[in-house]
Amino acid sequence: MRIVEEFQPRAVYPVCAQSVSPPFPGLSPALTLSHSPAPCWDIFCAVVDNFGDVGVCWRLARQLAAEHGIAVRLWIDDLKSACRLVPSALPGLDVQQVEGVQIRHWTAPFPDMEPGAVVIAAFACGLPDGFVEAMARRDPKPVWINLEYLSAEDWVAGCHRLPSPHPRLPLRQHFFFPGLDRQTGGLLREADYDARRARFSPADFWRGLDLLPPAPDELRVSLFCYETPALGELLELWRQGPTPVTCLVPEGRALPCVAPIFGLTDLRAGDRLVRDALTVQILPFVAQPRYDELLWACDLNFVRGEDSFVRAQWAAHPFVWHIYVQDEDAHLEKLDAFLARFRPGLEPAAAEAVTAFWQAWNRGQGVAGAWPAFRQALPALAAHGKAWSAGLREAGELAQNLVQFCKDEIE
Ligand code: TRH
Fold first, then answer.
1. How crowded is residue 266: how many other Cβ atoms within 10 Å of its Cβ?
2. Quick one: which atom of ligand 1 is closest to the CA of 85?
3. Which of 43, 64, 124, 176 has CB 3.0 to 4.6 Å from 70, enough for a Cys bridge?
4. Is residue 286 within 6 Å of ligand 1 at its C-beta?
5. What are 170-222's pLDDT values in tens digits?
6. What is the pTM of this model?
């Protein structure tokens, strides 16, 4: 797009001054400050739990570096968790360069550091006090972005890009919301997404897992979800069903709900279990691009949280969202808000089926009753998924929208 061609980030964002502290103990010789380009954007990621916080920040950081020529410092407080998502990163290094991004361990006390031209607080995480003071001293002041959670609720459009002044310092932050329409920041999608998908071979993918291509009546399902009694109920139904179901389950929180179906207490990556019509294959946790391939290969994708939920929408195959649980069932309102946007364009039976099944899945009961109609709606959902993802593209792409917003703020 034109924005990429016209935008010269190095010229717009002046090179940041380096740390005034001596190099950190973990700094490898290849990463001495004189060899690495100065970071220009700082992204702060506090890992709350699971993989979504790091997942979104890592994806954004890589895109900013690879597609927009921005030097990114990604500050992560829990490097051990991050290493699951970024397999080539090392948990013991305070500073490391991975895939064009400088990953830094966010420690307390925080080092004395000149802020970049843009500072992103991911998911409203608090920034270190000393760093905020340094932001206030910087001339010009950094653009301070509060990158929020994805929500389909109507109020988001009214809050996207809103400024909020700092109570004490001459700074203001801007709220930046991912979203599903042009009134929001859009969703992350790498520039090479379509090219990667065009090159993707399902046959090679299945061969790599040592699985035959699916039989004509078989359903291939990826299952990334939180623990829920609904999972056992559904697997049991599939086991007894008239047609084969092969279920690819990434290792993690769901496994204790899967094991009892096979009379086991423990499952691990590499296990393959077959009982009646049901085959379950446990997968290792893979790098993000490989996870996309799983979503492209399967007929139905169970996803969760935020980032895998977004990836399932780009994959445009039928999907089921296990939403992250919030206090006072606030998540159920978010679920309904998404469904209210997603349903238009679906025939009434399919619209009802997707609503009933998603609600049963998220409430943890009633999936067996909701499954037959949902199963029947899969062809309609497959067609709808294509139209839905095409519509999402019209909202624009989040990294690009963010770059443009910051450019406008700086000028
Ligand atoms: O892991 P999640 O449940 O993450 C979150 C967090 O709980 C977070 O606190 C909360 O705010 C958020 O949900 C809503 O789900 P999510 O967001 O889908 O993140 C998973 C990431 O892991 C995503 O980037 C995809 C990636 N992934 C892989 O890279 N490889 C894999 O094999 C799998 C299964 C996932």
1. 8
2. 29
3. 64
4. yes
5. 999 999 999 999 999 999 999 999 999 999 999 999 999 999 999 999 999 99
6. 0.91
